[in-house]
Design a protein that fits this description.
By secondary structure, the protein is of the alpha/beta class. About 20% of the residues lie in helices and about 20% in strands. Strands 1-2-3-4-5-6-7 form a seven-stranded mixed β-sheet. The protein has a five-stranded mixed β-sheet with strand order 8-9-10-11-14, with no helix packed on it. The protein has a two-stranded antiparallel sheet with strand order 12-13.
């Protein structure tokens, strides 16, 4: 699904998001969804007149199962390097589990929909990525789109956001979602299953002073009301003790 020139989302559903950035015919993938999103990836590439050979890099916002889905297949079959925040590298490689997360509110129907979606898209189990390129700290990557890496630990220890001024876009992973997979509530919030909510909110300070029309979450529809406006309700919820939903 094309969101804007040079910016695409993989698949028709925003329940679990993977994005494509095109730059002079070369592509960067941001997050790899679930394993079953592979077919959606191929369909989106075909619609763009591209193929997996045009992909130069896969960037993970963090190492959770619903973000690493087709990463190993893309790496193994097409030699695409996979980048991830250094503190999440071991999780992405399948060497350690995700640290225990805060228990979130849940509603039966939204949670059931998420589980069914997972089961029909390759299951909620990850394929370990045999080789990753760890990202240490803030930097700019030499990949299509030249994304600036912004560490935002909290959801996981190695969570990062990717800022692409050329697209007026920032990719947030689960540092900000616009639809809770556990409650169905819509609007900017920390993603469910956040390891350290207080740290996650504190990490958002690194985004102050930045602007982006496209604020792209790991789950839910794109936010186009401005980055400061997206962060405000998360901070407000944190002050009132409702950072998770």
């Amino acid at each position: 699904m094309q969101l804007a020139p040079s910016l695409h989302r993989v698949g028709s559903s925003s329940l679990v998001n993977s994005y494509l950035v095109e730059d002079a015919g070369a592509i960067t993938v941001i997050d790899a969804g679930l394993r079953g999103h592979w077919k959606d990836l191929l369909r989106e590439l075909e619609a763009m007149g591209r193929s997996p050979v045009d992909i130069r890099a896969l960037l993970l916002t963090h190492g959770d199962v619903d973000h690493v889905g087709f990463a190993e297949r893309l790496r193994q079959e097409h030699g695409v390097p996979v980048y991830v925040g250094a503190a999440d590298a071991a999780e992405a490689r399948g060497e350690v589990p995700k640290p225990d997360a805060v228990r979130d509110p849940m509603r039966l129907l939204p949670m059931a929909k998420f589980l069914v979606y997972g089961l029909t898209h390759g299951g909620l189990r990850s394929t370990p990525i045999k080789e990753v390129t760890p990202i240490a700290g803030a930097t700019t990557l030499d990949v299509p789109g030249a994304p600036a890496v912004i560490p935002v630990p909290g959801h996981t220890p190695g969570s990062v956001a990717y800022h692409l001024p050329s697209l007026d876009a920032i990719f947030m992973g689960d540092a900000m979602t616009t639809r809770s997979v556990t409650t169905g509530i819509v609007g900017p919030a920390l993603g469910p299953f956040t390891v350290d909510p207080a740290k996650a909110v504190e990490s958002l300070d690194a985004l102050d002073g930045m602007s982006a029309n496209w604020v792209l979450p790991g789950h839910g529809e794109a936010w186009t009301g401005g980055l400061p406006q997206a962060l405000r309700p998360i901070r407000t919820a944190s002050r009132s003790g409702r950072a998770g939903r």
